[in-house]
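Thread: "does anyone have the structure for this chain?"

Original post by V.I.:
We have the sequence but no experimental structure in hand. Need at least a predicted one for the grant figures.
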Amino acid sequence: MLQVERFRLIAEKAVGFEDALSLPDGSDDDSDLDAEEAEASDRHSHMGVKGRTELPAAWMIEPMPPSLPAAGKSPKKNTGMPPPANLQLEWVYGTNGPSTRNACRLLVTGEAAYFVGNYAILYSSGSHEQRYYRGHRRAIGCLDVNAAGEIVATGDANVPSSSSSGESAEIHVWSARTLQCLAVLRNFHPSGVAHVSFPAAASAATTTLRQAQALSLGERSGAGGNSSAILSSSLMKKKPQDTEALLASIGSDAGGSMALWHWQREAIVASGRAHPAAAGQTRRGGGGKRALALALNEDGDEIVVCGAHFVVFHHVGGRFFKHKKPHWHGDVDPPVHTVPVCLSAVYYGLQSAVIGTARGELLLFEHHVLTRCVQAHDVQSSVNVCLLSCHSMVLFSAGKDGQIKQWDSTLRPIGQALDLHALRQASATTAVPSSSSRPENALEGDDFRVSSLAYDAQRRRFLVATRTGNILEVDDDTSAPLAGNVTITAPPGAPLRWRLVASGHSGQPTCGVVTASAVGGCFASCGFEDHGVKLWSLRRRAFVQQLRFPGVGTAPSALAFSSDGERLAIGGEDGTLMLARRTGSPSSSAMTIEATMKNTSSGVALLHFGPTKPELLLAVARANGLIYIYKLEAGGRQFTRYALLKPRPQDSSATVTNETVPVCSLDFSSDGAFLRSQHGASELCFWDLHQRGGTRVTSMAALRNVEWHT
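Reply from O.Q.:
Generated one for you, tokens below.
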């Protein structure tokens, strides 16, 4: 998520209200629940440590001549409010990364649905357009689509107690066609919503039985007979429209609040706890009895919840759920001696549930009894996703190993597995051939651990989200007709076709964004603990390229474009400095790495290019407070140290102070002869670069007529 949150803050302040912000709560790291909690805490710590100090007003530091108001006009008062401008969202770049599983879905319109921050995004790869649902005031944390692909439910993410405004979390139910909000469900989950689930798709057997009973009911009613025997069936207790109006949800609170909603009435049908023991436990490290997956059966009268070493069935009876523990010691070969960590769940029929485990197994429960256990994936690879395709009625499983496999209702394998690692050798198809090109190195560094999966049987297309923050559309180009079994792999020798829907920074907050408007409109971004820099085209509204440090495992910490947009400087946390240069046509946004240098282990805190003439200088502020000035020679392919600026004398009493005072801002003069730097919240230094080595300017009279580059 790049500039979306900044724009939202400005818009909210302009209309006079503020809301607490939050990032979506982390999800499991392939069954490593301790890593998940650490990931969520690291995000908040990064945001606190890396925050920039607010710059003091310029006239408080640098002498400036007083400005006289024009005749007949009174000076404007500073009200502290932003200018009265209405900002319109043009495009959302990036993704939330592995914030949650099952966070991407395909709609009946052919669009891909996912969320970034407060916005639910509907992306059409055919027209390369985005639509947005903007009803949430908090960041979104979960998403689900009904079996018909027409209704979407999105829930608020968890909000830390320190930033909570006292309002309960909301669930919005809205139309995928019109983006109209149909219902807002509130006043139940206190902090956030972890999971939402619509009823499962009706199986072929259930659909046939419903049709036969409806036909028999019509015949008996027309003959004047008594239809009580038919209505006694559980399948006929609910009308189809009542079942379609049901929605299950689990909160992010420690108690595991769970509700079954009738969203059309905005009312709770039944409520309770996701796990009977959740009410008396607190989240410690791995999360205790925290629910990791939720599924609602097709009739809406049973819910299965699974998590770390537990599976619980909930039957809807009155206003409260009736808990039903599964029977683990059925006639299963091989037997299951211990309850594994369960990460995914899906219903296949009224009372047939399939559970995916962290040991690569698929467990089939029929009437709450374990009847089959299949080693679907490698024992070291968790099954993160279980998906039932409503049109083909085929069960898909995917997880850590990058394999997508398909199964029938008895967990017998169907067809062949799709290996996502083969996408690196496949040719990417463009979303819009006239304005979009293949992203270079788009899948470099992606281990294809699947966090979300969706399948469109009519358009023969998969939607895959990976742990590194990539969302891909993969075409299923089989020539055989789609009937019963779905062949996933393409014909032998034919490459898989894929499109990049969105790409993010591995779910980490963005730590740097720089623009180069002189080159057809492009910008670069980098994230915390991310080992690459992403280049984006504003003109094409697309991800263009990924630059990575060659042979270095460090993460970038600072970025800067030159004023002409020809060069991009990248600084690393280990002190590495890399220079990239634009290649191709003048309107191209692609770049190649030209030079790499490292002369100190102190991390790069800030970068800034000087004017291109008479000579190109690059200022590099290090984490220890020192500023290195480099001169680019040999066409920009070689670094030469021009000056080393020390804000304070390097004596024994000042060493510690220099290392703790960060450089917050850098700026060259228009002729490149002077540099000014801000250190901390109140110190502003000026430097004379006429002579090589740089000297501190102490007389403000020498700077009175200086024009600054920015």
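V.I.: this helps a lot. The helical segments are 4-14, 33-49, 204-222, 228-231, 240-244, 655-660.
O.Q.: and The domain at 105-227+244-278+288-490+498-503 is CATH 2.130.10.10 (Methylamine Dehydrogenase; Chain H).
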